[in-house]
Structure formats: C-alpha cells, structure tokens
Amino acid sequence: xxxxxxxxxxxxxxxxxxxxxxxxxxxxxxxxxxxxxxxxxxxxxxxxxxxxxxxxxxxxxxxxxxxxxxxxxxxxxxxxxxxxxxxxxxxxxxxxxxxxxxxxxxxxxxxxxxxxxxxxxxxxxxxxxxxxxxxxxxxxxxxxxxxxxxxxxxxxxxxxxxxxxxxxxxxxxxxxxxxxxxxxxxxxxxxxxxxxxxxxxxxxxxxxxxxxxxxxxxxxxxxxxxxxxxxxxxxxxxx
Length: 239
Known about the structure:
- The protein is mostly helical.
- The chain has 9 helices and no strands.
- The radius of gyration is 22 Å and the shape is elongated.
C-alpha cells in the first residue's frame, strides 16, 4: 500500500519554512481576504520555481534559467509547473490536485470585481488541505487554534495597565487565560479570523511539503545526468 500521508517533522524544521512563518505568515494574515489568496498562491508558485531550479543541471546558465522560468517559458505559470510535476511524477498526485484547487480559487476571485469574503469559501479552503493527505485539514485546524490562542496570550501579556502604565495588565499566563474565559467576546473575535489563519498555516504546510520533496530529489539526482542513469551514453547497436 502506498503511503500518502504527509511526512512528519519536516515542515517546521527547514529554514525556508521558519522564514515563511516569521515573515510571510503575519503578512498574509494582515492582508485582505482577496490579498491573502493571491499572496498565498504566489508563495506556492515561488516554492515550485525553487523546486525545479534545484533539479536543473549544474551547468545551466543564468540566461537559460531566465528563459525557462520567464512568463512565456515552459515553467512560466503555476499550472504549467504543476502539469510537469504531475507528468514526471515529481510530486504526489494528491498534492498537485490540492494546489490546482487553490489555483482555481485564485483564478476565480482574480476575475471577480465583487467583494470577496474568505469565510464564504471556508469549506473549499479546508477541502484543499484535506486533499493534500489524510487528516491534513484536521491538523491545520488544530494547529491554527493553538497558534491563534498563543498569539492572543502573547499580545495580552504585553498590555499595559490603563491605570498605571508602568505596570502590565496581567502578571502571568494564567491570569490571561482567566481573563479570556471571563470575556468570551475575545474568543468570538478569534473565531472570525480563524479561516484566514488556517489558510496561512496551510500554505506553509504545502510549501514545507514541496521543500521536503525537493530536498529528497536533490539528494537522488546530485551529479547524475538523469534520474535513470549516472551518465547517459547512448550506444549504437553492434558498436
């Protein structure tokens, strides 16, 4: 039986994923709903570009790279990258299909002038992550709840006392949790933002998956001419 589950302990350990979580995740969350989708798709596209760059022969010139990844080149668009990855079996089919779903969502909103509310597409966003692998949508949802709560606690712990600005509003984590429990409107506010946080974290997971596979393929290919042969030397029959 083929294991289609997402590999563990690979997404949060890579420096590129750390950079995403530290820099891009807050930006996506602060974006409009439309902007969050567009920026997320752009980040996935960028990781796929790096994915194929890592597989190029080491002798590839910079000009050749520019041609390959230019807008009119064979890897110019997200759809083209996904089609090559699928045809050459470089990425799992489930991951390719999940990114295609996300790409279609991006294309749909890009051609609409009406207001876009991410909450109206919450089921599709979660379907995208469910398509990546068994339980991925549940994992993203659970991780989102924890990350959002920790973020809220961190912010409240830095809040100044309105009566005495030299004092903090809360003395410790337990005091913050007690406050949140007594003021449930904070939880309601968090819940209203949840789908965008799920989107941002899910994009990070997809990017981490791409990075993981990229690194595994790079180990295999190394200095080989192709995946099939260390050095391809065609021979004429009878020679």
